[in-house]
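note to self: the first set is below, dont mix up w the second
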Amino acid sequence: MSENSIKLVQADGQPIFGEIAQPVAEVNYLECDFRTPMDKPVKGIRKKMSFNQFQFIGVMNDDIIAGIAIVDLKLISNVFVYVYDFKTGELFEKSILQPLSVATSIEAKPDAGSSYFKQFGDRLDIICKGEGRERKIQVSLGHNVSIDISIFQPSQFKPLRVCSKAGYNGWVYTQKAAGLTAEGSISCGNAKYILTQQETSASLDWSCGFMRRETAWNWACFSGKLADGRRVGLNLAAGVNETGVTENCLWVDGSMTKLNMAVFEFDRYQPEKQWLVKTTDGLLELVFQPVGKREEKINAWVIASNFKQVFGHFTGWMIDSAGEKTELNNIPGFMEDHYAKW
């Protein structure tokens, strides 16, 4: 724990709400005074089982776009990986469910913890190094997939850290970063991709909390390079983290510009059609052209999910905190439409 870092839950049993400037060393949720809507304290195993965690990692360059996720809902956990080849149009994907999260762990330390999922011959590991400045991702899914990637966050880079209320008695902490660099290798079947920092960009989403029992959101994220070579990243969401704060921002060479509310326009039942997204402050307007999607529906007793994550390219414009208007052309990234009950 570095000198200027903090624990999220304070001495009064409540988390720090709003945008958080200091690094969060630990989301110490077991110290939270979490209660039912009728003000009855929730303790022990019930508190642990009420706490959800997930991480999503995006990796992209001119050749491929990949999504890697680990989700721990306590009653069930999930890992999914997909890799899409822009040139051939081939998509590899694999999703694994694990009852009761028996071999799943996400340490509640955004910049220092490790995470893993293992089941039979499949394994995913995420290890943070250097106070979050490097994340090592290793995935082995049978004989088909091998991923070994490092994602780098410069020391001057400012990730977005937000904690907001969720429903009557819950809260969510999320930490986002986009416009990062990555290097390593991805092997899918007979295809192998070598990723270099010069050409490869990445995004990180680390989220947890006592979330709404039933929720839905839209999300947009991209990472790439501008025409002049500067790194650019974007994170937008609607439907979550909107109580007194938003998780909407863009980065140019690690410098963050906060954005207002995001408006998504799309056809839910035909997500492969063009999407539009803009912010209400007039700082950003984008067209998103999908090239493929990953979708999954799970209806398992008390848990349900209708998940559509579309990948493709963003074109449009943005205005950063310095007032500079910049055109964006074919920046790779994701759009998402998600309903969840957990």
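second set (the one i keep forgetting abt)
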Amino acid sequence: MSVNRMILNETSYFGKGAIKEVVTEANKNHLKKALVVTDKDLLKFNV
């Protein structure tokens, strides 16, 4: 059985245009990967 590790960042961004903050946040925390979550219903309800 393998062990997996997940590090959750301390800052989350929400709302229209939030994706623009990803590069700054990733660089600040020396992150190499990001999980961006969206789907048609989240977009439909402006989440």
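remember for set 2: The chain has a mean pLDDT of 81.
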